[in-house]
Fold this protein.
Amino acid sequence: MNKYVVGKLDGKVALVTGSARGNGLGTARCFARYGAKVIMLDKLDEVFAAAEEFKAQGYDVCPIRMDITDPRQIKDAVSKGIELYGRIDVLVNNAGVSILSKFLETPQELIDLHFNVNLFGVMNLCAAVLPHMVKQNYGRIVNVSSVTGPYVSDEGEIIYGITKAGVIGLTKGLALEFAKHNITVNAICPGYIHTPMVDGAAKQSNPRNPQAVLDGIARTVPLGRLGTPDEIGELIAFLGSDESSYITGIDITIDGGAALPETNVIGIR
């Protein structure tokens, strides 16, 4: 028996952005396992192949190609989801971008890309989905922020960190404003999870040996490894379910304890 098959999301309709791969794919998989119908949004055509794999396993999913930086495409995608399933119970804002760049050398187009995807895209999706949640007097929103920005930083990640810190502010404001409509809004702050985004950052950092970067990250994590997309999905599934009905306006760190050490050089080894 699959230990993950528990119907805590039976009958729920979830919309997950960036669900072609990485954390979004892991989240869509976890939601489907728990019985949800999943609207899978991504700008990559890979989302259709991922959806076909889920359908082959008997899951009810609908892939939609969407560019999160385009407000019109966002509205169209939400409308398609509502037309198909009649409602959206859970919104997972996962889509994100992270491209390393020194602050004084970051071109405006790269700044705009980070803000348009990581912050404005989240805002626009919330604005498109919230009226439906208000009408049904029910909703769960989970925003994927990061430990980078709100808590820690690495060189080259200033712009990324600004946008992810902004997601926390958005989460708290929405949680307060929409609590009266039985809508909860929470954020998660992942550390290093083994995703294509992290692989890309490793290649930027050390093109000749990106695995050495990944191994170095793992050595700094108290649990001794990077996280997995399914572990992210399990946390988001909890926050998207009624198990978390009295939790709103918080951000939860999921980083294997990486933010715990004050330094990596002082202490008894």
Observations:
- The chain has one domain: 13-191+227-254.
- The longest strand covers residues 183-190.
- The mean pLDDT is 94.
- The first helix runs from residue 22 to 33.
